[in-house]
Design goal:
Rossmann fold, alpha/beta, globular, four-stranded parallel sheet, 305 residues
Length: 305
C-alpha cells in the first residue's frame, strides 16, 4: 500500500486505521529528512500547492508551508483579507480562479463547518482540511496522535483526557475520532456549558472535574477557551474558569502521577495552562510543533500519489 484510501483529507472519519498507520510510518521517514543538514527532498517537485486561509493561523499555516517546501513543491499563499472575497466573490469562484493557474492541491482553512467538503465536491484538485469552523482539524489530530505514539511507542490502551472548550473545538472532535481508531480511551473534561449535547454519543467518558480527569489519564491534551467563536458567555469569568479548570504545577503535584501534557496552541498562559507546566519536562508541546511538519509532509506526499 503506497497511498491512502481517500482522495482528499477532509475528516479523520474518512481514514482507516491502516491509513493512519501509513501516514505515521511515512512521517517517520520524513522526520529523519527534516533533521538532516539538507532538509529537502524532491518528492513533490512537479506539484503546486495553494494554501487558502480564510481564517487567521500561525502554526498550521507555517507548518504546511514548510512541509510543502521541504517536499520541493511550488507554493502559493492566499489570504482572504485584502482579496476579492471582501468584494463578494464566492468560495468556489475564488478557488477555481486559483486552480486556473494550474494548482494541483489546495490546503484550506475556513470559518464554516463543511466548507472543505463542499469545495472538494466542486473542484478537481486534492483538498486538505486545515480546520473548518468548529468541525474538524484532521492534521492536528494526526500530529497529536503521532506525538503520543512517539512518546509511548503505541497509542492503543492509553488513556487520553481532552480538557477545555470542547464545544467550539475542531481539535477535540478530530482527536476523539483519531484516538478511537488507534485504540485509546478518551475522556473529555470541561464546564457543562462547554460540552456539546451529542458528546456522550461519541463513546467518550465525560467529566466536569479536572482533578478527576488528571487522576484518570496518561496524557492530558489541554485546549484553550475559543473566545472568538463564542457568541454568548459560557462561564462568569476567565479567572473563575482558571480556578476550576486550569492546569498548574501545584495541581499536578497533588495528583502525583506522571502525566504527559499536550496543547495544540496557541496557549493562553495562566488561563488553561500555567507556564511552569507548559515549559516543564512533562510537556511535549514543542514536539507536537516539530512533528506537525513531518506529519503534514506525509499527508501531502500520500495524497499527491
Amino acid at each position: 500500500m503506497s497511498a491512502i484510501s481517500t482522495k482528499h483529507l477532509i475528516s479523520i472519519k474518512d481514514l482507516s486505521s491502516e491509513d493512519i498507520e501509513l501516514i505515521f510510518s511515512t512521517a517517520d521517514n520524513f522526520k529523519e529528512v527534516i533533521n538532516r543538514p539538507i532538509k529537502k527532498v524532491p518528492s513533490l517537485r512537479d506539484i503546486t500547492v495553494a494554501n487558502v486561509f480564510f481564517e487567521n493561523s500561525t502554526r498550521t499555516r507555517l507548518s504546511f508551508e514548510l512541509a510543502e517546501k521541504r517536499l520541493s513543491a511550488d507554493v502559493v499563499n492566499f489570504s482572504a483579507s485584502g482579496s476579492s472575497v471582501s468584494k463578494g466573490e464566492t468560495l468556489v469562484d475564488t478557488v477555481k480562479n486559483i486552480l486556473a493557474m494550474k494548482v494541483d492541491m489546495v490546503v484550506m482553512r475556513h470559518s464554516s463547518a463543511g466548507a472543505c467538503e463542499f469545495l472538494a465536491r466542486n473542484i478537481d484538485a486534492k483538498v486538505i482540511n486545515a480546520g473548518d469552523g468548529a468541525h474538524e482539524h484532521p492534521t492536528q489530530a494526526l500530529l497529536d496522535a503521532y506525538s503520543i505514539r512517539e512518546k509511548y511507542g503505541n497509542v492503543a490502551g492509553l488513556k487520553v483526557a481532552i480538557i477545555g472548550d470542547i464545544l467550539h473545538s475542531r481539535v477535540a472532535l478530530s482527536n476523539i475520532f483519531c484516538l478511537h481508531k488507534l485504540g485509546a480511551e478518551v475522556m473529555v473534561c470541561g464546564p457543562t456549558t462547554l460540552m456539546p449535547k451529542y458528546i456522550s454519543s461519541l463513546g467518550v467518558k465525560v467529566s466536569h472535574n479536572v482533578r478527576e480527569a488528571l487522576e484518570w489519564c496518561n496524557v492530558a491534551n489541554i485546549l484553550r477557551i475559543q473566545l472568538e467563536r463564542q457568541q454568548t458567555r459560557y462561564f462568569p469569568s476567565l479567572r473563575e474558569y482558571t480556578l476550576h479548570f486550569g492546569v498548574n504545577k501545584a495541581l499536578l503535584e497533588e495528583v502525583g502521577r506522571d502525566i504527559t501534557i499536550m496543547h495544540p496552541g496557541p496557549i493562553n498562559r495562566g488561563v488553561e495552562l500555567d507556564s511552569d507546566v507548559a515549559d516543564s519536562g512533562q510537556s511535549i508541546i514543542l514536539n507536537q510543533v516539530e512533528n506537525g511538519v513531518a506529519v503534514r509532509m506525509a499527508a501531502l506526499y500520500l495524497l499527491a500519489n
